[in-house]
Automatic annotation (TrEMBL):
Protein name listed in UniProt: Major facilitator superfamily (MFS) profile domain-containing protein
Pfam families recorded: MFS_1
One GO term describing the cellular component: membrane
Main localisation: membrane
Entry's localization field: Membrane
Protein species of origin: Rotaria sordida
Membrane-topology descriptor: Multi-pass membrane protein
Limits of the Major facilitator superfamily (MFS) profile domain: 37-457
Length: 479
């Protein structure tokens, strides 16, 4: 940048030259602030999913500790996601009107406190453990509804796509690390409760970083329209649910979340049972290894899937503006055969099963960033938190809030009182067979969304452009 300024110097007056230098310094300062904000939000998202799946990595130990069955084990995830889902509309409302930074600080603090508190619950108070897991969901809801909207307000166009991809890498990466940290910390300390005492420490560090380093951007600033919220929440909801592509994307994400939620929750236990049948005996070291392998595959597949999906969509979008939902839909449908193979072959073909898990997770994770990106460009800035909260509410209500419990209940039904190793594996496999069929519906919904994505994006851009004109002329517009 200094070279560019020096080249212009002969043509500039002293005042003009100063303004260029100030603008250059300001631009560098903004890039630095944006990078810091992005890093902190990424770290919080990483911890968010590490905390969520650390329990899945030690789920069998939790079942032994509290003496509970599959249905109650699935209930742990269900109550977490239900509270997360139920509070999402509230935080969506607040996120479009008040300080998003403050909401994130309070949210991270709450889920850190409740997570560590859960590690001290005695074995005869399972209901208290369930309650604390639900409160963790409250804290996470306040973060998830608003963090993507902050990213959308500091980046735009292809850079926004890339940064949302980076942000969403934390979903599979954090989930994978959750399995690994959960299983190996519990193994090191010979107590599963230590698995819940890792993320709260880093949560406290993130709160400090938020307070000291992060500056909240003005809503709509990246799009050049500084919008002030003046419409009611009910009006926002009515406008959002009129957007056809939004509804179809939400349904697609919901059905994919049903499949991913149940597989993520029950996957390690299902594979542990398969390994036990293949080896003819149970080995505590093998249990830890299954969680480790599952976590490593989730991390690797998630990173590759998110980056690959975003890059393919970014390139394809230049030739076909409907590219984002098409890439999402095709990727989900391609994953279906591999999901069936995982469920059918896991007992007899262990290595092949791990390969198919990697391929399936890569394909399913490829839509994470694209969904957020589509949401940001079909919704105007002052309704993005509300739209995110609606998506979160529906996605969890019909998706991963209910799926772990439903799969647990179906598994208990197929078991019919039998308690041998083969019956345990078969019953859980039969229950998990539901997930590929549900995922097919998700892939179809994404493809239908491609029919409406262009007109919905154009409508949002026209609204933002009208706000720019209004701002230039000093007019007051309802957002």
């Amino acid at each position: 940048m200094p070279d560019e300024v020096s080249d212009l110097t002969p043509m500039l007056s002293p005042d003009t030259e100063s303004s260029v230098l100030i603008k250059s310094t300001s631009s560098r300062g903004n890039k630095y602030k944006n990078a810091i904000t992005m890093i902190v939000l990424f770290l919080i998202n990483l911890l968010n999913y590490m905390d969520r799946f650390a329990i899945a990595g030690v789920l069998e130990q939790i079942q032994d500790y509290f003496d509970i069955g599959d249905a109650e084990a699935g209930l742990l995830q269900t109550v977490f996601v239900c509270s997360y889902m139920a509070l999402a509309p509230l935080f969506g409302y607040l996120g479009d009107r008040y300080s998003r930074k403050l909401m994130i600080i309070l949210g991270v603090t709450l889920w850190s406190i409740t997570t560590i508190a859960g590690s001290f619950v005695p074995k005869h108070l399972f209901w208290l453990f369930v309650l604390l897991r639900s409160l963790v969901g409250v804290g996470e809801a306040s973060y998830s509804c608003v963090a993507p909207t902050i990213i959308a307000d500091i980046f735009t166009h292809d850079m926004r796509t890339r940064m949302l991809a980076v942000f969403n890498i934390a979903v599979p990466l954090g989930g994978g690390l959750g399995y690994i940290v959960g299983s190996y910390v519990s193994k090191t300390f010979h107590d599963w409760r230590w698995a819940l005492r890792v993320t709260p420490v880093f949560g406290a560090i993130c709160v400090i970083l938020l307070i000291v380093l992060v500056t909240e951007p003005v809503r709509g600033s990246a799009d050049g329209a500084h919008m002030q919220k003046k419409s009611s929440w009910l009006s926002d909801v009515k406008n959002v649910i009129k957007i056809k592509s939004f509804l179809l994307i939400t349904l697609g994400f919901t059905w994919v979340a049903f499949a991913l939620g149940s597989l993520s929750w029950w996957g390690p236990i299902f594979l542990q049972k398969a390994h036990k049948l293949a080896n003819g005996s149970e080995d505590s070291k093998d249990k830890a290894n299954v969680s480790l392998y599952f976590g490593m595959i989730t991390c690797g597949a998630g990173i590759i899937g998110v980056l690959l999906g975003s890059e393919i969509a970014r390139r394809y979008r230049k030739r076909n503006p409907r590219g984002d939902p098409i890439v999402c839909g095709v990727a989900v449908l391609l994953a279906i055969p591999f999901l069936f193979c995982v469920l059918l072959l896991s007992k007899d073909y262990i290595v092949l099963t791990w390969i198919f898990i990697f391929i399936a997770e890569t394909l399913l994770c490829s839509n994470w960033a694209l969904i957020t990106d589509m949401l940001m460009y079909i919704i105007i800035p002052t309704r993005r938190s509300t739209a995110s909260s609606i998506l979160i509410f529906i996605m969890h209500l019909l998706g991963d809030a209910s799926s772990p419990y439903i799969i647990g209940e179906i598994s208990d039904f197929f078991r019919k009182g039998a308690d041998d190793d083969l019956s345990n594996w078969v019953s859980l496999r039969n229950a998990l067979m539901l997930t590929p069929f549900v995922a097919i519906l998700g892939g179809a919904a994404f493809l239908f969304a491609a029919m409406f994505i262009i007109q919905d994006r154009r409508r949002a851009e026209e609204t933002i452009e009208s706000m720019k004109i209004s701002n230039n002329f000093g007019l007051s517009e309802n957002a």
